[in-house]
Design brief:
By secondary structure, the protein is an alpha/beta fold. The protein contains ten helices and ten strands. It has helices spanning 52-60, 98-101, 122-144, 146-155, 168-179, 206-233, 237-264, 277-291, 303-316, 382-411, and strands at 37-39, 91-92, 112-119, 184-191, 197-205, 293-300, 320-321, 330-341, 349-361, 366-379. It has a five-stranded mixed beta sheet. A hairpin with a 4-residue loop joins strand 9 (349-361) and strand 10. The protein is elongated and about 95 Å long.
């Protein structure tokens, strides 16, 4: 199964609140500023988007990097999204075109999703027209996948980017790139008076887009069914957890495609998934809260206090602990050393402390993480210095253990 590799790049997408008339375009007046833009589809705004498209693109092209840094991708050529057999439209001068003052007879809303862009030059107008269609997809996917994305971020919190942390805004960009794959510039109007100004009409064939999205959804449905069946037969909780995490990621991708399908479908109807989000979440939650357990063992100086602190912290993080090592999916084993340190300072007493912890997958006895740390603490007495050292250990140890455990559980799906 393909790998999920999420890029580090951070996009700064600014989603706009647009009030747009379904099925047509409003009247365009002469420009009062450098550029203006409008679209034909209502666009709703949300504040979360994404995990979807980027991961889906990585499944299709795992070795193909995405280098664009812009939030709404713009083709390199004037009409790079159009078919290679479609020539760029000639500029129209003279009478205003119908879509500038209303709906287009050539590209009716029932058959095409359209966007109008304008600018001081042709390239700017065409880019703005494509961007208007892109914004429709961005806002709809934002709204439609918000619950799934928030849940994925919650169960995988603490993961670093190196362990495939979901990057919401990267997903927006990749989703938009795929949504724009069928967009082309249909018509361009050049206004010569009082100053030169350009208007462009971008169109997306609804039926073609629906066919492509339907195929993608059917493929994802089959992959999800296969993984759910695999998870139901997997006896080891850790492996089952990894499989279900992959299922949830694919579900977000599937929901993204469904949101895009609703955008291009003239009726606005969706194509629901045979296995829904709630069913997958319930399976994941059951394992996280009941079946998957962690065993903590600490030896050495102040081991009782350190174990208690670490166990309480892991419990707050949502992990379930067990005193039976054989029942655990992951074992956290560590040793703490706190020793007096000779120092010429007569007023202060110092101790040297060291911790060595191993994180082990109990299913195969594989050590997947080793955490070592050391330091020096001082106070008026050795006892007080040791107390300070213990507080330092407690403060630094929990975040590292929690992060590594989560990264291992959620960052290494057996299906990737």
């Amino acid at each position: 199964m393909d790998n999920f590799h999420f890029l580090r790049r951070k996009s700064g997408v600014a989603l706009l609140l647009l009030i747009i008339v379904l099925g047509g375009c409003g009247t365009i007046s002469p420009p009062a500023a450098q550029k203006t833009s409008r679209t034909v589809q209502e666009s709703s705004v949300a504040d979360s988007k994404t995990a979807a498209e980027k991961a889906f693109d990585e499944m299709e092209h795992p070795n193909k990097p995405i280098t664009s840094k812009e939030n709404i991708p713009k083709p390199k050529d004037k009409d790079a999204t159009a078919s290679s057999h479609t020539k760029a439209p000639k500029e129209v001068v003279g009478d205003r075109l119908d879509w500038m003052d209303g709906t287009s007879k050539t590209y009716p809303a029932t058959s095409y999703l359209t966007g109008i862009g304008s600018g001081t030059d042709r390239r700017q107008a065409e880019d703005n027209a494509r961007s208007e269609i892109a914004k429709i997809f961005i806002s709809h996917v934002n709204t439609s996948t918000k619950i799934e994305q928030e849940y994925l971020k919650e169960i995988s919190k603490g993961k670093s980017r190196e362990t495939n942390q979901l990057n919401v805004q990267d997903m927006v960009q990749v989703s938009t790139q795929k949504a724009l794959s069928g967009v082309r510039i249909a018509e361009v109007y050049r206004q010569s008076q009082p100053t030169e100004f350009f208007y462009a009409l971008a169109v997306l064939d609804r039926q073609q887009a629906m066919t492509m999205l339907k195929e993608k959804m059917e493929t994802l449905d089959q992959e999800i069914r296969t993984l759910m069946n695999q998870a139901s037969k997997e006896p080891k909780d850790l492996q089952k957890l990894k499989i279900l995490t992959s299922v949830m990621e694919k579900q977000v991708l599937r929901r993204t495609k469904e949101a895009e399908f609703m955008v291009v479908n003239p009726s606005g109807k969706s194509m629901p998934a045979p296995i829904g989000f709630e069913e997958i979440r319930r399976s994941l939650t059951d394992i996280l809260s009941k079946d998957f357990q962690i065993h903590v063992a600490v030896s050495g100086d102040h081991s009782g206090e350190i174990k208690k602190s670490l166990s309480e912290g892991l419990t707050r993080e949502g992990f379930v602990l067990t005193n039976n090592a054989k029942q655990a999916g992951v074992a956290v084993k560590g040793k703490v050393t706190i020793k007096p340190l000779d120092h010429p300072d007569n007023k202060w007493k110092y101790v040297r402390w060291q911790t060595v912890f191993e994180l082990m997958d109990q299913s195969n006895q594989t050590v997947f993480g080793t955490l070592t740390n050391s330091g020096r603490e001082g106070h008026l007495s050795f006892e007080q210095a040791a107390t300070r050292a213990m507080m330092k250990i407690q403060k630094e140890l929990l975040p590292k253990v929690s992060k590594d455990v989560r990264s291992y559980i959620f960052g290494q799906s057996s299906t990737r």
